[in-house]
C-alpha cells in the first residue's frame, strides 16, 4: 500500500511538498502555525499518530509493550529509552504514513497548485525526506531549548537535558541539503525570517 502511494506521489504533476523538522522546543509548531496562516495545508504527523494510537488494535499493542498508553507517559519513556522510541515507531509508523500519504494525494488532486507541509521530526527515519521539494529544520541553541522545555513542560532539569541529548542521533540524520532555520532568538525574529526569506522561496517553487 505505502509503495503504491509513494509512486503516486512521485508521479504527481502539481503541488509543492515541504518537509518541516525540528529539535524539541525549537519552535517547529510555531513555524507550522505560520505556514497554516499562509494557507498551506499542514499535516501534523503527531496528530495523525494520535488517531492511530486510539484505534483498538494499536492501543492494545502499545499497552502490551509499554504498560501504558497515556501520551505524557509514553513521551517520557521514549525520550529516556532509544529502543522504546524505535518500538513505538514500528507500532504506529506504517498506519501513520499510509494516512499521511492518502491525505497528501487528496489535497494535490483537489487543486492545480497547492502547498502541503509535512510537520514531523521523523521524516528521515520514515525515509520520506527524499520526496519533499523543500526541507526545513528548526534549530535553537541548547540553552534556549532547555529554558523553553522547563517553562513549557514543567519537568526537571535532568529530564530536559536528557531529552535534548537524545535528539542528537536523529538530528545527525537530517539531509545536508535541508535548510536550517535558527530560532534561538525571539518570536519576532523568527516571523521576520519566515516572511522575508522562506515564504518567497516557496512561492518561487510554486511557479515552477
Task: Describe the fold and architecture.
The chain has 208 residues and is of the alpha/beta class. The protein has a single domain, classed as P-loop containing nucleotide triphosphate hydrolases (Rossmann fold). Helix content is 60%, strand content 12%. It has ten helices and five strands. It has helices spanning 2-11, 28-37, 45-53, 56-66, 71-80, 82-109, 142-153, 157-166, 168-171, 187-207, and strands spanning 16-22, 41-44, 115-119, 134-139, 179-182. Strands 2-3-1-4-5 form a five-stranded parallel β-sheet, with helices on both faces.
Task: Give the secondary structure arrangement, pairings included.
Blueprint: H1 2-11, E1 16-22, H2 28-37, E2 41-44, H3 45-53, H4 56-66, H5 71-80, H6 82-109, E3 115-119, E4 134-139, H7 142-153, H8 157-166, H9 168-171, E5 179-182, H10 187-207
Number of helices, counting only DSSP H or I runs of 4 residues or more: 10
Largest sheet: 5 strands, parallel
What is the chain-wise order of helices and strands? HEHEHHHHEEHHHEH
What's the architecture, going by CATH?
A: 3-Layer(aba) Sandwich
Broad CATH class: Alpha Beta
Number of domains: 1
Please give the alpha-carbon distance between the first and last residues. Answer: 30 Å
Q: In what order do the strands lie side by side in the largest sheet?
A: 2-3-1-4-5
Q: Name the helicity range.
A: 55-70%
Give the DSSP E fraction (strand runs of 2 or more residues): 5-15%
Mean pLDDT across all residues, rounded? 88
